[in-house]
Amino acid sequence: MDDTVRQEVRQERLAGPDGTDLCVQEVGSGRLVVLANGLGGSLRAWAPVLDRFGPGHRVVSYDYRGLYSSGPPPVPHAVTIDDHSGDLLALLRWAGDEPALVIAWSMGVQVAVEAALAEPDRVAGLVLVAGAPGDPLAGVLHTPLSRQFVPPLTRVVEVGATPFGAAVRLLAASRHAPGLLRRLGVVAPSCDLETFHVMAGEFARLDWRLYMRTIRAMAVHDAWSRLGELTVPTLVVGGTRDLFLPQHTLRAMADAIPGAELTVIDGATHYLPLEFPELLDARIRQFEAERVDRQTAV
To answer: Which of 13, 84, 249, 280 stands 20 to 30 A from 262 (CA)?
Structure first.
């Protein structure tokens, strides 16, 4: 985020259901919007979108347990999607009685779906960006073999977390890394590389043992069979060049959620919020006006 946005962020502390110390960020005032980040993301990942969408909204986010400025859980393996959705529900209660427009990205889609299924009255609408409601490893590099090779790989990294972290920090420190990722097609040409570089530096300092345990917990979560139970207005958004989420998964998710809308952005990758903030802002505002406001008025 630029200095102007950073100065507007208010930080609070919140205890999760099991006492985990969560760092909460709050920006602006107006309609309540709650962000559920990707596993490797923070509020910074939304900076280009918030520059446009923020005015008129009270945007609240939080760092996942054990990541960035939040403390670790009291039990090392308490990083399941149920644990994270419990934290999100605690945040929604903390934010007040107003139902929130919940905007979720990547792993946040799993977390937000569980929260909306558990307490739909606290959710005015869902915007599900570049994420699946379960079995997320099935889409990695668009091959189901990722289900077999990713979990063992996370265990290798967990054992070698110290040298792995040092290597990631070295890579993240390079000013050339974001450009290389763009040339490789991991991010789109329109990606905000300056924000991506800062994010990479923060990401490189994470607790890699906890991070890898969280990936394995993501892999065993599956809410696909319960999508038909969602009762809140829902917008599904994704890109045509996402290496982690095939388009057929986006369409299946939109088809399974009653009344859901689908937007697929040509050329967008998994880092859509950093690549097409204008399009994402416009689409969310349209959804907010046509579906969320109308639902609230009924």
So the answer is: 84
